[in-house]
Write a structure and sequence with these properties.
Blueprint: E1 2-12, E2 15-26, E3 30-34, H1 41-49, E4 56-63, E5 66-67, E6 77-80, H2 92-100, H3 111-117, H4 133-145, E7 151-155, H5 163-176, E8 181-185, E9 197-200
Parallel strand pairs: 3-8, 3-9, 6-7, 7-8
Antiparallel strand pairs: 1-2, 1-4, 4-5
Helix pairs in contact: 4-5
Length: 203
């Protein structure tokens, strides 16, 4: 997968968050998207994910040298971010089963194996609303990492994680992202230590 950000700009009301940005992302590389607060780290991640629209410019996706049409981009992307919600009336089993119905897991993984991998096997009967913030973050990581997608977008992925949760994150990066394009919006070097390139939104 290749992502081409062309002359991109985003503004809210009259204020430009970023403007005239040209960026290329190529699989299987990992990229850190950094910058001061308000520089557009999260905004550009959301624009790539399709959750926000650019005010100017374009974002194009290519797979094996062919353009991916906009209506099919979602099939190739999974995202984890603190501002994205999970369905809290569900159990983790129900949520992951539901998520897999429209975005299948990577080969060899089942809901049961994933729950054990993320350390929530003792909380399968609880509604997600009764989870701690760190447990909810593990669920968000799971639905992103284990989806069979070629692009993984991570925005401050270690939010609310304790030491064990951070080690889980490192493990998931190491084992599930060898051949994926990974974009990490963060100013925390722990979160983007796997990245070979840094894109600063502050410049």
């Amino acid at each position: 997968m290749k992502i081409l950000v062309n002359k991109a700009g985003k503004r809210f009301n009259r204020e430009w968050i970023f403007r005239n940005r040209d960026i290329e992302f190529h699989a299987p590389n990992h990229y850190a998207i950094t910058g001061h607060n308000g520089s557009g780290k999260s905004t550009v991640v959301q624009c790539i994910a399709g959750a926000l629209h650019l005010s100017e410019g374009s974002i194009e996706f290519e797979m094996d040298g062919k353009k991916v049409e906009p209506e099919h981009v979602f099939k190739h992307i999974s995202i984890c971010a603190p501002y994205l919600e999970v369905i809290e009336d569900m159990t983790v089993v129900e949520f992951l089963d539901y998520h897999a119905s429209f975005k299948p897991f990577q080969e060899g993984w089942t809901t049961e194996k994933i729950i054990e991998e993320i350390g929530l096997n003792k909380a399968t009967n609880k509604r997600i609303r009764n989870y701690s913030s760190g447990m909810k973050q593990r669920v968000k990581l799971a639905q992103a990492f284990f989806s069979n997608t070629s692009v993984l977008l991570l925005d401050e992925p270690c939010t609310n994680l304790d030491k064990q949760g951070i080690e889980l994150y490192r493990h998931l990066i190491k084992t599930l992202c060898k051949h994926r394009l990974v974009l990490i919006g963060s100013n925390d070097s722990i979160e983007y230590e796997s990245c070979s390139a840094i894109v600063s939104m502050s410049v």
